[in-house]
Design goal:
mainly alpha; Four Helix Bundle (Hemerythrin (Met), subunit A); extended
């Protein structure tokens, strides 16, 4: 029990410190590396809770795919931090105004928040015995029944993020040759292959 408590505080402390560094780091590449460390510590917390499937998904999907994708995108974009900081004060009033508007909207939303009538019945529903239902099966039953629309919406958000990262990297650069699929498909053998018969004992002029 003492070991579990010490592991909880260790994972929590490192997760909080690394999450703060994601925001405070000036170099975006360093921010992504701190984000990967945050994911690893969150996976450790899930393991302490007995949710081994969530811990595995967090490492495989978020660390192995999403965070690495962020890192590659940031490196390919070649962001110049000095240029970004030059226009900070110029756009600060507009950004502050938009932030205040968002805070007011969030205050109005949470101020008028009310629990749905069917939420209480869902809370009082009988929870299956975790000893009889595996962790993965229990998550699948909840995810694909009660939260199926939220699950599909999350998939759409990831799809939009993937398309956005592709669009950001598809920049036109002078002097860079790109693949032309239609030209490759429509080419003929006569245009690409030349058969030369060389007589024996003679070279090609």
């Amino acid at each position: 029990m003492i070991v579990a408590s010490l592991a909880f505080y260790l994972f929590s402390f490192i997760a909080i410190v690394s999450a703060l560094n994601v925001i405070l780091q000036r170099n975006p590449v360093h921010s992504v590396l701190w984000l990967i460390l945050t994911f690893f510590n969150a996976a450790g917390l899930f393991l302490l809770l007995g949710a081994e499937f969530l811990a595995m998904i967090l490492v495989v999907v978020y660390v192995g795919a999403v965070a690495v994708l962020f890192l590659f995108v940031v490196m390919m974009l070649d962001i110049n931090v000095a240029i970004i900081r030059e226009g900070f004060m110029k756009y600060l009033p507009v950004g502050a105004f938009i932030g205040i508007v968002l805070l007011v909207e969030l205050a109005l939303v949470f101020g008028g928040w009310a629990m749905a009538p069917e939420a209480q019945s869902l809370r009082l529903a009988v929870t299956p015995d975790m000893a009889q239902v595996p962790n993965t099966e229990a998550l699948g039953l909840i995810m694909y029944t009660q939260y199926v629309y939220v699950f599909q919406a999350a998939g759409l958000v990831l799809l939009v993020a993937m398309i956005g990262s592709i669009v950001l990297t598809m920049r036109r650069r002078p002097g860079v040759r790109k693949q032309d699929i239609s030209t490759q498909v429509n080419r003929r053998k006569e245009d690409t292959v030349e058969i030369v018969k060389v007589p024996v004992g003679k070279g090609i002029a």
